Amino acid sequence: MAYGVADFLGGFATKRRHVLRVLAVAHSVGLAVVLGVALIGGGSPGLSDLWWGAAAGSAGLVGLGFFYWSLAIGTMGVVAPVTAAVGAAIPVVVGLVIGERPAPSAALGVVATLGAIVLVSAGDSTGWIKHPAAMRKSLIGAVVAGGGFGFFFVLLSQVDAAAGMWPLVAARSTSTGIVVVLLLLLRPAATPGGVAPSSAAGVLDITANVFVLAAFNGGMLVIVSALAALYPAVTVLLARFVLHERLRPVQLIGLVLAITAVAMISVA
Questions:
Q1: 260 with 133: CB under 8 angstroms?
Q2: 136-147 pLDDT, tens per residue?
Q3: Which helix (H) or strand (E) holds 206?
Q4: Contact 173, 56 (CB under 8 A)
Q5: How would you write 46-76 as a 3-class SS string?
Q6: pLDDT digits (tens, 9 = 90+) for 185-223
Q7: Which of 34, 148, 156, 228 is least surrounded by CB atoms within 10 angstroms?
């Protein structure tokens, strides 16, 4: 739920502000929050835990950056489920490689994600027909974002439970540093508005990460990451009722298939 609301707010903010400025606000706020959580919770992280966290932060930044960018130029009801489907499939594959053995339904869920991507990208009444180039870009961005999120889960799952939340501090410090450097180099135009939703997105996103890291301490990579990828249900509902986005029947089928695919993976 936290991921779903955070992504909606982040995508909404990116429609008004440059994606780097949205990320800068969100990640700075998130860093302050997780630092406080880590100080309260304690933990004894090893150097490897911090390195895993930093790598996860880099992958997560790629995912979030492309996700917000895709939401800004595309349709939330298309971008969110495609991103989630790809992001859920990657940890499943990695989990199988490292020896996890999920149920056969997980394999069917991975296959279903491919069909979902085709159906969801089949065209919509909110922009595909009138702006096909932009919608194709948003779909490509959604796939890249899903890859970033998938590897974020994979990398974060490698930290030791005794590390507490310090790997997330390393993750958010790394991503914040990268965003600041990109801001200084690219200097995107500053526009008014968007600070409040960016800040709220940062708080909710890091909150979701805290719960996911806690879940990894006792759960399989395949199951935890797939369950976390159920967030599109929240994002799409918010987009439908707040932004009044509408999808064609074929895309609704694709949306249902994408969410069903994630659910099939999660029962592993």
A1: no
A2: 788 899 999 999
A3: helix 195-216
A4: no
A5: CHHHHHHHHHHHHHHHHHHHHHHHHHHHCCH
A6: 988 887 877 789 999 999 999 999 999 999 988 778 877
A7: 148
